[in-house]
Amino acid sequence: MHNHFSNEVDGQLKFYQDYLPLVDNTLKIDDILTDYTDGIVNGNLIEFKVVINDINTVLFQAIKYLSARRIKGKEIPKNILLVSLTNEKIYVFDSQDYLTHIEKVYFGGASVKTSGFSSGNPLAVLEYGQNQLDEDRLIKLLRSKQYTKINIDENCIVGWAERFYRENKGAKKSDFIGDHTGKVKIIGEIRKPEKLKEFINPYIGETNAQFHYLMDKLNDTLQKKNLGAFYTPEPYVQKSLELVRQAIKRVPEGNDYIILDRCAGTGNLEKLMSDEELSHCVLSTVEYYEYKVLLELLGDKVRNIIPPTEKEDTFNMGLVRGADALSEEYINNEIIQNYINDPKLTIILYENPPYAETTSIEHQKAGSGKSSSAWKKSFLVNEMKKEVRGPATNDLGNIFIWSAFKYYLRQPTDSYIVYSPVKYWKAQHLVNQKFLGGFAFNRKHFHTNIDAMIMCALWSNEEFFQECLALEAYNIDKQGRIIREDNLNIEKTYSKYSECYYDKRNDSNDRFDGIHTGLNGLEPEGQKLRIKPRYNKNIIGYLVADSVGFDNPDAKSSLLIAGRYNGNVFFLRSDNFLEKLPMFAASRYITYNRHWTQRANIMKSADGAERFNKAVSSNKIEQDLLKILLFTTLETQNHMRSLYGSDGRFYRNELSLDNSNGDTLATVNLAKLKQGSKETDLFEQWGKVLTEAKKTKNYNSKLTYSVYQIIDELNTSEKDENDKTIYNYPELNGHLNTLKTKVKEYYNSEIVPFLFEYEFLK
């Protein structure tokens, strides 16, 4: 008798309940539901349908899943099992037979546009619910661990490289890609698979040039983005070449010129140049495999590649000896010095240098070991530190920018076209030369997956002070076409919050026997402490609002009931807390304004401190500050929570609207707020949240709750069999979601204009 299932999920669960214990009793359903498939069990991809009426369509859907796995660097199961639940049939296919289809790239969902595909006959049709022999064959299939070997190409090489480095800690790029054409012969995993021999075929290409535009992504995790240049998408290259041609027009009559790129990678910036423009190029890259590709692609077209030819000692542990742009040797290179010393030659630098900060979250995630910061001991860094103080030297891109003007540009008609986050000019003031034009580009398209602004600027080698830069903004659409967006004005910032606004007072009543908290507002365990645990009745919390930019904003902005264990910010006191809260509000800007033109453009500043302090003194902005207080009490990054500390004290959250146990400092002050419809709406929505919160199992009537504490402790949830989140209190969860939406709207309409007016944001 056939089963009747109303949906695939029910049939899928029954199938796994019946057969998984017979295959591997340690396997859980969560283990096999991966990559949006219905299941991967050993060497089998399984696709379920209530009834299969069209084999071609279902098989093609499975092939798309396998294509996505190949691109991600995941093994391809040998068997494709298409399960028709109602009539209990399984159609078995060998993925090897469809390898040419698996090795294509598909766009859109796997179940979309599946018509028009024609399959061969299945290897077998198993009637698993009716035939014991077929059931036995099914179990044997599900136990098998065989895979179809795929071919490495430009579409999947990054996925397989990342897998190789993940599974082989300490492996270098040479271990993966190899190259037998150089003076040093290195086979590499893709040419002679050992670790991946069950999953990939040997790559038989003569050179690595096929992968040139992805070469920078093949650096191992520890070295990623510290060597070579960022991959630059073609539409942006085309725009930046406009600046190069503008620079060429500045070359004085009778002068020769060179276009110098010290971090050329595989020549992404140069690939769209004319032959005439290429003939002026002097290129180098420190990464050996990029160097090899550069020689192959452009060696006969450019004026110089440094070094010009590969020698026996050129290969230096994956790097190119003599091509390190951060070294004294490079600056003193005979070819380069010959150009620098020629008064009848104009120098144009054209570069997209690596620009990850060692203190940034990106860098830390990539690996903060010694190898990822080895450049900090270079000659140029040491020289820069003699002239530049502060965090600017933590950014590798800044080393390139500073050294460009220091060592290479000599004449007023020399030029520098550089891709970099705008901070080097806006906040760090590394460049005080004349700006001749530039563009804003979306960093997302540079293999970073971060919507943020990158500036591509043309600088003249002429001293010139500018307060504001005007940039044309360009994004790239899904079809790869460049699209114009609004012009952007970039304003300089001068002062930091820490210089003007931090409360650095020491109170004679301060005690140092309090508690610490972590980012989650709770006392941390086993953390190294950087600050003393200060306690005073007038201390209501600890405010984190550091950094001028918005890299990792949730770590750089928070409110806590006590000092953050690793903090270097300040304690919030009851006598002046209102005037300090704009810093917290400003630090949340990027959370509510995620357009790519905002991040790395808008920054925090204290440039309006004098006007702000006067306005505070005159009580001119009391209502604005109360609005910010209202926002602060409802903002989810306010991680203040009421708790019993390990020091025996009860810490009550005074920046809360919960007056169940009497008024808080916040509710007392907000009684003075002149409520409009927006404010009334927020108070009412908070009331709905608190009402539902009090109905929850974990509610403690002795505590004074914040929105965050309610979310973390009371709005509990579970995972169902399909790994979907099911909230225990849907009414509470719904009211919280509505509150978040209203807070965002309130922030952007009522708070943001004030923050820009007084230059907390700029």
What is the number of helical segments per DSSP (H or I, 4+ residues)? 26
Major beta sheet summary: 9 strands, mixed
Oligomer: single chain
What is the total tally of β strands? 25
Helical coverage, percent range: 25-40%
Backbone CA Rg: 31 Å
Structural class of the helix and strand makeup? alpha/beta
Weakly predicted, low-confidence segments: 219-229, 358-371
- Give me the side-by-side strand order of the main sheet: 10-9-8-13-14-16-15-17-18
Which outline best applies? flat
Please tell me the overall pLDDT.
Answer: 89
Strand content: 15-25%
Provide the number of structural domains.
Answer: 4
Cα separation of the termini: 72 Å
Question: How would you summarize the topology of this molecule?
Answer:
Layout (H helix, E strand, L loop, with lengths): L7 H16 L5 H4 L7 E2 L2 E6 L5 H18 L3 E2 L1 E6 L4 E6 L4 H4 L21 E3 L5 H12 L3 E2 L8 H11 L5 H4 L57 H16 L6 E6 L13 H4 L2 E4 L3 H11 L5 E3 L8 E2 L2 E2 L7 H4 L2 H7 L4 E7 L9 H6 L12 H9 L8 H13 L6 E6 L2 H4 L6 E10 L10 E11 L4 E9 L5 E10 L5 H4 L38 E7 L7 H4 E4 L9 E4 L3 H11 L1 H4 L16 H9 L4 H13 L8 E2 L5 E2 L13 H6 L6 H17 L13 H8 L2 E3 L5 E3 L2 H28 L5
Parallel strand pairs: 2-4, 8-9, 8-13, 9-10, 13-14, 15-17
Antiparallel strand pairs: 1-2, 3-7, 4-5, 5-6, 11-12, 14-16, 15-16, 17-18, 19-20, 19-21, 22-23, 24-25
Helix pairs in contact: 19-22, 22-26, 24-26
